[in-house]
Design goal:
The structure holds 2 protein chains of 2 kinds. Chain A is an all-beta fold. In chain A, 0% of the residues lie in helices and 53% in strands. In chain B, the strands form 2 sheets. In chain B, strands 2, 4, 5, 9, 10 and 11 form a 6-stranded mixed sheet that branches. In chain B, strands 1-3-8-7-6 form a 5-stranded antiparallel sheet, with no helix packed on it. Chain B is globular and about 40 Å long. Chain B starts with a strand and ends with a strand.
Chain lengths: 113, 110
């Protein structure tokens, strides 16, 4: 079974803090994604990566950055957390090729106070 | 206009009925189409994928794709209370980027 593990299930941070959300997958997938999910707004793509050290902006990259130093790990960074970044963050990975099926982690519910 | 639109919910059906979920998309270059199920407080999980026009059946689930109409649907036959969840339609371009609809919440009443 594919396993996508997010480092924290719940996280509470203060405004202005630098926040790291970690995601690790164990299936040697090339593609990894970070989404945020908010009521009424659905699942929105923040950043994605097709390979190590490679990143592409998604639909809402502002206020976020990412790092992919190893194939299995994709980190989402909030440089200076703000209250409007309070959300559920979901990491996903997918294998190469045309199928594009995504496997999701359990999610991190981040609250910025 | 949203890139992926799903029929507004919530949708409520009695146990044993057919639940019909619909999705339209705007990018004609879309290549892959998915239905994910998300239980409350959980992450999405894939239930159906479809890549070519027509129907694809898997147990009680049938996905239908019509690229000319830019329409994809999911039928759930013999609906069970355990099918109560939010269903997300996802559309992926050739570049591998996925766009999700807002989801339709289904409730199956015993």
């Amino acid at each position: 079974d594919v396993k996508v593990t997010q480092s924290s299930r719940y996280l509470v941070k203060r405004t202005g803090e630098k926040v790291f959300l970690e995601c690790v997958q164990d299936m040697d997938h090339e593609n990894m994604f970070w989404y945020r999910q908010d009521p009424g707004l659905g699942l929105r793509l923040i950043y994605f990566s097709y390979d190590v050290k490679m990143k592409e902006k998604g639909d809402i990259p502002e206020g976020y950055s990412v790092s992919r130093e190893k194939k299995e790990r994709f980190s989402l960074i909030l440089e200076s957390a703000s209250t409007n970044q309070t959300s559920m963050y979901l990491c996903a990975s997918s294998p190469p090729g045309g199928q594009n099926i995504q496997y999701f982690g359990a999610g991190t519910r981040l609250s910025v106070l | 206009q949203k890139e992926v639109e799903q029929n507004s919910g919530p949708l409520s059906v009695p146990e044993g009925a057919i639940a019909s979920l619909n999705c339209t998309y705007s990018d004609r270059g879309s290549q892959s189409f998915f239905w994910y199920r998300q239980y409350s407080g959980k992450s999405p999980e894939l239930i159906m994928s479809i890549y070519s026009n027509g129907d694809k059946e898997d147990g009680r689930f049938t996905a239908q794709l019509n690229k000319a109409s830019q329409y994809v649907s999911l039928l759930i036959r013999d609906s069970q209370p355990s099918d109560s969840a939010t269903y997300l339609c996802a559309v992926t371009t050739n570049a591998g980027k996925s766009t999700f609809g807002d989801g339709t919440t289904l409730t199956v009443k015993p």
